[in-house]
Every structure is written in C-alpha cells, then in structure tokens.
Amino acid sequence: MQGHEIKVTFQPTGRSVFVLPETVLLEAAGRAGIILQTPCGGRGSCGKCRVRLVDAPPDPSPASIGTLTPEQVAQGYRLACCTAVTTPLVVEIPAESTFESTQQILTADSGADVEVAPLVHKKRFTLPPPSSEDPRADLPRLQAALGDISVSPTLMRVMSGFLRDNDWQGTAVLSNHHLVALEPGDTTADGYGVAVDLGSTTVVGKLFDLVSGRECAVASQINPQVTFGDDVISRIMHLREHDDGLAELQAATVACLNAIVSELVAKADVRSDEVYEIVLAGNSTMQQIFCGYDPSALGEVPFVQAFEEAQILSAASLGLKANVAAEVYVFPQIGSFVGGDTVAGIVAARLDQWDEPVLFVDIGTNGEIVLANGDQLLATSTAAGPAFEGARIRQGMRAATGAIEKVIIRDDVAINVIGDAPPAGLCGTALIDAAAELLRAGIIDETGRILPVDELPAGVAPALQARLVTEGHETRFMLASEAEAAGDEAIYLWQKDVRELQLATGAVRAGVQIMLRRAGLEADAIHRVLLAGAFGNFIRRSNARRIGLLPQISGDRIRFIGNAASLGAKLVLLSDRERDYAARLQTQTEHIDLSLDPEFQMEFGMAMIFPSADFDACED
Amino acid sequence: MQGHEIKVTFQPTGRSVFVLPETVLLEAAGRAGIILQTPCGGRGSCGKCRVRLVDAPPDPSPASIGTLTPEQVAQGYRLACCTAVTTPLVVEIPAESTFESTQQILTADSGADVEVAPLVHKKRFTLPPPSSEDPRADLPRLQAALGDISVSPTLMRVMSGFLRDNDWQGTAVLSNHHLVALEPGDTTADGYGVAVDLGSTTVVGKLFDLVSGRECAVASQINPQVTFGDDVISRIMHLREHDDGLAELQAATVACLNAIVSELVAKADVRSDEVYEIVLAGNSTMQQIFCGYDPSALGEVPFVQAFEEAQILSAASLGLKANVAAEVYVFPQIGSFVGGDTVAGIVAARLDQWDEPVLFVDIGTNGEIVLANGDQLLATSTAAGPAFEGARIRQGMRAATGAIEKVIIRDDVAINVIGDAPPAGLCGTALIDAAAELLRAGIIDETGRILPVDELPAGVAPALQARLVTEGHETRFMLASEAEAAGDEAIYLWQKDVRELQLATGAVRAGVQIMLRRAGLEADAIHRVLLAGAFGNFIRRSNARRIGLLPQISGDRIRFIGNAASLGAKLVLLSDRERDYAARLQTQTEHIDLSLDPEFQMEFGMAMIFPSADFDACED
What is the CATH number of domain A120-183? Predict the structure, then answer.
C-alpha cells in the first residue's frame, strides 16, 4: 500500500513536495528545504512559524488563534507547526518566518542578530586635485580620503592613471584596510559575495548582496570529484596514486565553483567581476584539495591536516571567476575530520552562547558531533559510514526521485516516495523509519534481528506478518511489493541493512556518549540537540531517537537547523566580526579523537544494541 | 702642459688611479672609489684613515708618528690624509679604515654601529613527528617551533610534503613573521641579499651575506633606460608618447637588474635562488618605472609622485632572478624630485642624529639638498642641469677615459686626464676646477665673464695670458693645445661653459640659501657639509666652495661620504630596524618646493654671481 500523497507548493520559491495526509506543514516545508523558525519547539506558543495559505485555508488551530491577530487569521495566516495537510495547498512563506532570515532560532538565548558589515565594503571618494600648493603623492592623497589603507603593487600600477582619468573621484572597494579595486562613478550600491558549502557530494553556492545582505541567487552542482571516488578516502587514494592527482582534483573543483559563480551572476544579472569575496566551508579534505594543499596525510594514521587557522587565498591565482582582487576565505579546521563545515556550523549555531548544554550533530558519511557545555566545546567525528546516504544498503539509493523516504507502520505499511513515483529503493530516512517502526511493532528485536513469523510477539498485525520473508537464518521485510515497485523486484528491508544501520547509528551514539562523559553530563542534561545538514532536515526525530541515533530526550528539544555550514559561510561573508568569531570558536573547541578513547570500542559495542523502548512514543 | 701622473694601486680591490704628484693619498683613494674614514676631517689627528704602503713607504709624517704605534709605522702604515704621492705606490687598505666598514664617520655623534639583523633570516628546526597522541596540524606544528609565522598559500602547497620528505626537519627562511621558504638540511649559514642603487645613468648592485653582513660582490651596469633619453624627463616623455613605453622601460630595468644579479651570484659563487631580499634606492622616476607605476605625473606641473611610503613587491612577479619568495623593498620618497636615493642617503648619514646643523648635498643633474637642524629635516631638489655631468658644455664629456678631470692653475696650467690618455674633453670636476682657478687668477671676474687679455688685472702670468682667445665679445681659455689634445682641436673653457656652470651652481646655492633661511640659520652655523654621490667624491672642495657651489665654510667641515644611497640600501638590507628608521625619516623630513618659494628667483639671480673671494685659499 502506497500512501496517498498531497501536493504542497511553497511561494515565493515555487517548490513543491508531496506529503502524506496529516503531515504537519512545518515538516512539509522542511522537506521543501524551507526551515521555519520554531523557537518554541513547534508547540504553537511562539507564533514565529506563521505562513499564509493562499486558497481555502483550513480552520485555524487553537494555537493559531492564540498567537495570531484576527486580521492575520482572516488573511489566511496559520502556524505551520499546528496545521496538518489534508488537501493540496499553496503556502506563502513570509521572509521573517524562515530560519535564514534571522538567526533567531539559533541565537534565541543571546538575542544577537547578524549585522551586515562585510570585510569587503565600498566608499565613494572625491579628492582635491593636486596643485603646486598641494603636491601630495597620489597614494597619501587617496589615503587622506579612505583612511590608512594599503594598496598592492598591482593596483598601484593603475591608481595614478585611474585618478587622473576620472577627475579624482570614484568608488573604492576596500577589504578591511586594503584597497581591492577602484571603480569609476558611484558603485557603492553594487557589490557581491559568494558563500560556498563545498560538500563531498554536492556544492552549493549562494550569491549575496554585500550592501544589503540580501541573498540574490542560489546554485548547486554535483561535486565533480565524485568521479574520483564517492568518499574522501578514495579521493585521497586517487591523488596519492597519480602524480597530477591533486592538480586534477583541484582543477575539477575550481571548474565546478566557476560554473556555480557563472550561474549565480547570470541569475542575479550581475557581472562576475562584481564578486569581491568568496567564503568557503567544507570538510578538511575538500578544503585542502580546493587550496591545493596535499591532503594525503588525512588519509592515513595519525590523520594530520595541513592547517587549523582560516586560509586566505587570491581568487585570481586559483583561477576563480571573480573580481581580480577578490579573496577567498577558507574556514578554519578543528581536526582531520572536523573541518571547516563544522566550524561554520558552530558559528551558525552560536554554540558558545547557550546557557545550557547543547549537542550539535551533522549526520552524513561522517557524523560530526559538537557538545557545547558553557564555555567548553568538544568536537569529534565518527565514521558513520554511508548507510545514511543509502549506500551499502541492499536496495538503498540516494534521496532522489523514486526513493522511499518515509515509512509509517501501523496495521500495515504506508510509504512516501520522492517525486510521487513508483518506488525504486529506499534512502536513509526510510531506513531509519523502517527500523524504528519495526522495533515498535516488535518485528525487530533490540539486537537488531528481524524476527521470523514464528518468533514474533503476540499481536503483530497480519498484514505485517505477510510481509516477512525468511530464507535460511535471515528474515527480510517487504516495504513495497513487486507490483508496486518501479522495477520487477519487491523492495525489502534486509537483515544486512539493519546491521549497517546499527553500525552507523552505534558510531554516532558512542561518539555522543563519550562526549557526554568527557563533559561529565548525562543525556537528559542536554537542553537542545541541533540537527544540521540536509539529512538532518528530513529525518524523523522520534524515529532517529527510537533507534538510538539521537539521545533519549524529549522531541521538543531536538531542532533542525538546516544547512548550518552554508549559513555559517554566509555569516562570515556578511560580517567581518564573524571571522574573528570563527577563529575564536576554532581555538576554543577541543578536538576529541574517538579512536584514542579507551572506552570507545566498548561504547560502540553497546551502542549497537537498540534502545529498549521508546522515550516518548506520542510525538513527531 | 699635461701633468706627469703617478700610478697608485689599491689592494685588495686592485683598482688603480693616476694622480698628480703631491696628491694626498686620501684623495687618490677617493678617486678609486675607496672612501676612507676621516672623522677628524683629514687633519691627521684621529688615525682612522691608516693604510699600509706595501713597497718603500715614504717617511712617516709627524701626524702618522703621533697617531700610529711604532710597530705600525715599521710595518708601513701611514695616515692617508697626511701622505702625499710622489712615487708609484701599492697601498693596502685595511677593512676597518674604509668608510663602508662601519658608519663611524656618519655616526660619530651618536656612536651607533650597524647591527646585522635583516628582515630575512633563517632558523633551523626539528619537529616531533605527528602521532595519534599528537595529531596537530602541520602548520601549528611548524609554528610551535618557529613562532607565530604566516605562510602563503604557495608555500602551504609544498609544506606538508616537505616536512614528510625531510623527516620533519630543515631550515626555515623567515621574513619578519612570514615564512619565505623551506630548505632541506641546515642552510642557516647561507643567505644573500642585494642592495641596488638604481641611478638614472648607472645601476650598482652589491651582494651581501645576510648572516655575516659581509659584502660579497659588486656589479654595475649602465642603466639601459639611457637609450630612451639621458634624463628622467626625456624618459617620461618617451613613455607618455608610447602605449607600451612604461612596460618597455620597466622591462629594460628588470633585465639590467637581472644581469647584475647574475654577475653578483657568479662572482660570489652562490645561486640566484639564495637571494632572499632585494633593497632598491633610486630617484622617484627610476623607482616608479621599476615598480611599474606610471611616472607621467612626475613630468609636468605640479609634479606628483605615486607614493611616499616604501613599496614591497614580489621579485617573482617582477620577473627578477632571485628566490621565488624574495621581496623587493623600494625606498620611501619625500617628493617628486627627492626620491628614495635621498632617503637612503639620509638614512646612511643618520641626519637626524647630529647635534649641530648639517647639510647633505648630492650633486648630479638634480642637486638634492637636505638640511638637518636637530629634529628638523628640510629637503629639496634643485634643477642643477647636466653641466656637472659634462653635458651642455661645449667640449664637455662624462668622467670617462680621456676626460680632463682636474685642473690646477699657477703660472701655467696643469691638467689630469682620466686613464692617462690624451685629453678629449672636460668633465664636471674640471669645469669647476677651471672656473675656480681662473677666478683666483683674476681671468674670470665675479660676473663669470672670461676677461680678454686687455682687461686682465696686473700680474697674470704670461703663459696664462697666452691661452686666452678672444673672438667678438667672447673670450675662451685654452686648457689643452691642439698638439696635446686627442682630437685635432684644442680644448677650451668657453664663455658659454661658464654660464652653464653659473646656472648649475646658482641653482644649488640658491637652494641652500632658501633652506638655511627656512631653518633660520646662517651658512657659518653649518657644522658639516656631507657630499654624497659619485660626483661628490671627485670634487675639489676648495674649488666647489670658490665658485659658490658649497657654502663658505672651512674645508674641514666638508666631508665626502661616498655613495650614500648605496650605503643606505645596504643598511636597510642588513637590518630590519633600518626600515623603520627610513620610514621615520621620510615622515620627519619636510619637502620644500623651491619653485613655490617667492624668494627663490631672487636668490637664484644673486647666486649666479660668484663669491667675491676665497674663504680659505690655503686648504684642500
């Protein structure tokens, strides 16, 4: 049985998703990549997640009535966290409700907002022309107007001519106290920067107006390095085995960024030479390949990275399409597998500013975990493996069209397939869903074994029993029949899939345990779990917690914070102070190497066993 | 009558000069480019100018006996200032007697010596290899050994490989707190720098060992820009009239420096990539052309230079042969015509450290004048014109083989010709000599007129009268007869030559007058006149003073300080602190534009008249 899906379209982006009936709008928006503000934890008390339903809004929930004005309700505003989808909807998202419009959700405890004060800024100037009475040299004349700036020899070579050709006036582009460019006329209103999230698989670039802070365009590309290997280790192997391997990988990355920049400037109708600054966040291997710093040492024990502090490179010398004087800021790195993307995430989450313990988790092939306990910040990385991305799962696939992405098991199975297509496989979230639901149904036991029909506890629904197939010692569970599936095979959750999930989950869970122990905390002391990364957005919290991937705490303490790396890159791009903040956080964060912890193996072994019961079965 | 010349050879350089009998050794050494220490002003009281006469030393002068030990006298040591040349000599110059060995003569009042502490220095390091217990990133590991250094992306790209390939040890080349290079093994004993005096006509480079401070080699080239014009204005005109003119002049200059560096490293038997630093001093036009900064504005009113503060450029980006990370320091500039060479001279002369007023004069096509009066430093430049370099003089020539370089007039004329050749013309010093001597003889009057025989005062020797040739209203004075001369013409001092000399001299003299007035000083308050530049070395002080080129003060207050620009460049190369000192002096020095001084024209007119009498006819 495939669930009947309902289409929800979001404006102004125009993105649509198909969701099961009764899905809460907040989650539907998240699946469309729109993270709404939920400082109250989605309990309907803060009113921050309000959206407008364009046609036929459903009756307002009591929470909507309590937090919205009657005018807003009449205009179709509702709270996304308290509104269930029952009919196709067109939903307008007010800018102020989105997560990225402010960092309210992240800075709820500090109340800080993000200033737009980028390192690169512009200043209009008009100089008195030289005369016999005022024969100052050109540079001090310019400095008198712009402050004690430094000017590179390259720019010095054009400065004198520029000043004379433009009647001693124009616009200076400044980066900190360094002159970046001189432009004729008044161009103070124009100036752009690009924030890049350089993922191993996907590269996302966002173009920002450095004057207003406005996001002008988004573009993404598959990281072309995937042709050299799916994960960072296989890419490092490639470059170790080929003399020009590093140059090849770097060139591919730069070409990819250039494609992104080209798309961004085309979308925003600006010129690439108006791009004055690029900020890039990625894991240590991605960052080092981009910089051209040999990452070989990241591929073997003792796993050593080249640098910790942020790197500043010249865009021109890297061959990047941008203003000739543009600089590229590459995030600081905490450890070999706790890279710039994690630092960017820590920046975005303001992890040092929470009054109570907070756990930051970014789940992918590596699970990066940061525990903030007041001033103490502990970071680690754990090799979750690619199970969450659908790899090593027998019928696994990436979260693309045809992937089962949600599984609900009651008396029978309901699934949700991306793109409203016949199912072709299952992605990471469905893997978690299926395991959690089967645990609840008693079909999987705590050791992770899928029970054959004759070992099932009493009361398992007949429709579920009918889905179990036992062959030899192993049992598998059918998620979609041959008739329902896209191919000519039924789609199963296999015993081996559950083992892979246990390994992946156990690694993260053991990592969290070790971190808590280092900080002297129990799991229930965690005030917030912040789930970062694309995968985090789609995960069902209660199910992640059921299988032990997330700590056993109340669901309202678990928050999705979206692409925190991208957000951190944006913050550093838009505000000079954020660079200092990133540097401070990098210094402040202690790197924990789990492989050196004597207790890790034991914790890992224990974490392979699923939690014995639901913490709180009724929510999410 | 050509004077009988005596050959004097100096060791260890092996340079020889031919001098007139009774020439003092101090002067002979100066003509060979060897400036000896004379803190006592050459009066035989300090003993600093001692030299050793290898064969048959003359009897010691009373001063030599008074200041040298009997052993030294027995070994052939004599005081150069008190020893006259009567027979051919081979003279050994002890390093400690030369001007450049220390700055004693310049720093006599402060007693400061020059430390060898260049910006570029080396440090040997051995790092603990990374381990699981110490997995620090490569850069912080290196920083732990070398301090908080910055590393360029270019060097970051090789750092990790270098450390692993060299067992975590090697030698770091540091420039201030910046890592310049990594070298295998212990190379702390090797490291070189080049100090360049980029003159409009001649370019001189000196190679220094940055560890010991030792001068390893000297090389010079004619500035190839001379093919684009003799003076800076004609070169500026050239580049204004040709689209690629600046690039052409810059390329020629870089090629010239590369030829010099090649010669230097070949002489010293080192590699060009061991040259880590280059310091360059030149006038504003030369410096801007070298940097590639358009000097057009230096060629027209109001004469504006591009920069004042020192410029730091990458040798590699300029195409200079040196270590790929070498930097080029280009001296700060005070004004359009008071350039980096003058700043270097001020540095060398420690002009701010004298307790009494000091006048620094560098005479060439432009006469640069700096008056130091305690903390007050006033600098100006005056267009002396090319007369001192033999140009615009009817039978003038550069100070090359065949040039009359010295003229002595008693009952008849004695001349000295460079290279012991038949005279082909006269150079700047001979012009000054001839005019001064003819003034003394009464043959030129105070207005500069060469008197015809019938207007001569009584007592002019018949041999001199015989040398006067009057044609129309103008009279000329024969310095060498047709028979003596190299060509088929006699060599004369023409009336027009005297007028050119008056213009050149008047400009310098008026400049000095204005400077003194600005400082509220009279000429006799000047404690020292420091004569810099190659021309200054060869000038006869009493004659320069007789024609008014130098102030009317006692000759022992006038000192030759040699190529002060080259010395200043050396100081900055060898000591980081000298950079700060140069920057302070540039800031401290006030630029006086003579063309804006309402009194300059009047002063200039008055200065055209020669002084009425010798200040002190018996010395020099």
Answer: 3.10.20.880
Question: In chain B, which residue's Cα lies nearest the Cα of A306?
Answer: B138
Q: What is the 3-state secondary structure (H, E, C) of B443-510?
A: CECCCCCECCHHHCCCCCCHHHHCCEEEECCEEEEEEECCCCCCCCCCEEECHHHHHHHHHHHHHHHH
Flag whether residue B311 sits within 8 Å of chain A, measured between CB atoms.
Answer: yes
Tokens representing residue A23 in the block = 């899905």
pTM: 0.76
Q: Quick check: A130 and B164 CB within 8 A?
A: no
Give residue A38's pLDDT: 63
CA atoms within 13 A on the CB side of A201: 13
User: What 3-state DSSP class applies to B74?
Assistant: helix
Residue B125 in tokens? 């390091």
Which residues make Cβ contacts (< 8 Å) with residue B557, sequence separation at least 6? B41, B526, B527, B528, B529
Residues A616, A598: Cα–Cα separation, whole Å? 32
Question: How far is Cα B271 from Cα B131, in angstroms, rounded to an integer?
Answer: 37
Instruction: Give every strand in the sheet of A413-417, ordered side by side.
Output: A413-417, A403-409, A425-426
H/E element, B138: helix B138-146
Q: Which residues contact A58 (CB under 8 A, 6 or more apart)?
A: A78, A83, A84, A86, A87
Q: Indicate if B120-183 has the same CATH topology as B6-101.
A: yes
- Does the B6-101 domain belong in CATH 3.10.20.30? yes
Rounded Cα gap, residues B559 and B565, in angstroms: 16
Q: Cβ contact (<8 Å) for B304 and A137?
A: yes
Cβ-Cβ contacts under 8 Å, B301 against chain A: 132
> Could you tell me if B445 lies within 8 Å of chain A, comparing CB atoms?
no
- In terms of CATH, what superfamily is B341-386+502-607? Protein of unknown function DUF3822, C-terminal domain (3.30.420.260)
Order of strands, sheet of B120-126, starting from the edge strand that comes earlier in the sequence: B120-126, B169-175, B178-183, B150-151
Q: Please give the helix or strand (H or E) that residue B151 lies within, else none.
A: strand B150-151
- Angle of the B138-146 helix axis to the B153-165 helix axis, nearest 10: 90
How far is A372 from A519, CA to CA, in rounded Å? 9
- Residue that has been written with the tokens 């370019």 in this structure: B203
Mean pLDDT across chain B, nearest whole number? 88
Question: Per residue in A411-463, pLDDT tens?
Answer: 999 999 988 889 999 998 999 999 999 999 999 999 999 999 999 999 999 99
Domain A351-385+503-607, CATH: 3.30.420.40
Any chain B CB within 8 A of the CB of A156?
yes
Domain boundaries, chain B: 6-101, 120-183, 192-330, 341-386+502-607, 394-493
Enter the ipTM: 0.77
Gap between the terminal Cα atoms of chain A:
22
Residue type, A62: P
- Per cent of chain A over pLDDT 90 is 60
Rounded to the nearest integer, the mean pLDDT of chain A is 88
Residues B494-541: tens digit of each pLDDT: 999 999 999 999 999 999 999 999 999 999 999 999 998 767 767 888
Query: Cα separation of B350 and B110, whole Å?
Result: 9
Asked if B138's CB is within 8 angstroms of A304's CB, the reply is yes
The one-letter code for the residue type at A595 is S
Residues 6+ positions from A588 with CB-CB distance below 8 Å: A352, A375, A377
Say whether residue B612 is in contact with chain A using an 8 A CB cutoff. Answer: no
Is A259 in a helix, a strand, or coil?
Answer: helix
Q: Options 3.30.420.480, 3.40.640.10, 3.30.930.10, 3.40.50.2300; which CATH number does B192-330 get? A: 3.30.420.480
User: End-to-end distance of chain B based on CA atoms, in angstroms?
Assistant: 22
**Residue B411 in this model has a pLDDT that exceeds 50:** yes
**Distance between CA atoms of B51 and B77, rounded to whole angstroms?**
5
